[in-house]
């Protein structure tokens, strides 16, 4: 994991205390597109669209710099 992937990972880890968390730069290393998986108890009973909104809100400053995001969320 490179430095920027680690930064995103730490942000998500501190906010969601995930059971599973993956952050991958899928842009070929330029940091403009990420594939992210977050599995968290905070998502229990929350519709998927709202789960995605929660993640987007936490990462909004970073997402503004990106071309795209492949986001998967789930509750355990």
TrEMBL record:
Pfam families: BolA (PF01722)
Official protein name in the record: Bola-like protein
InterPro entries linked to this entry: BolA, BolA-like_sf, Mt_Fe-S_assembly_factor
Family, per entry: Belongs to the BolA/IbaG family.
GO cellular component: mitochondrial matrix
The organism of origin for this protein: Candida tenuis (strain ATCC 10573 / BCRC 21748 / CBS 615 / JCM 9827 / NBRC 10315 / NRRL Y-1498 / VKM Y-70)
């Amino acid at each position: 994991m490179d430095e920027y992937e680690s930064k995103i990972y730490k942000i998500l880890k501190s906010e969601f205390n995930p059971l599973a968390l993956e952050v991958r730069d899928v842009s070929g290393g330029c940091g403009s597109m990420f594939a992210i998986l977050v599995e968290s108890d905070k998502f229990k009973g929350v519709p998927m669209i709202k789960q995605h909104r929660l993640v987007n809100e936490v990462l909004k400053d970073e997402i503004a710099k990106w071309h795209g995001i492949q986001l998967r969320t789930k509750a355990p």
